[in-house]
Amino acid sequence: MLKDTFRLTERGAACTGIFYNNDLNSVSKIQTIKSSIKCMNKNGGPTFLGMELAPGDKTPRRCVVIHDAPPFFR
Fold first, then answer.
1. Of 31, 32, 56, 73, which one has the greatest count of Cβ atoms within 10 A?
2. Is pTM, for the whole model, over 0.85?
3. Which pLDDT belongs to residue 15?
């Protein structure tokens, strides 16, 4: 089973480790992420952006638009 990750930060490994019996360890030399996107967590791992959605409504009235994101995030 996968034990060490060279790509994920400690935070990323801790969150992804849920799928690996909580036994995933980060051995990455990089533990902080440089990004101009303010909502991105500097320690890596997932980012949650909540938005209002009425019960039963499948289309949010507001959406997240990241203007300074690289093209593949748009």
1. 31
2. no
3. 93
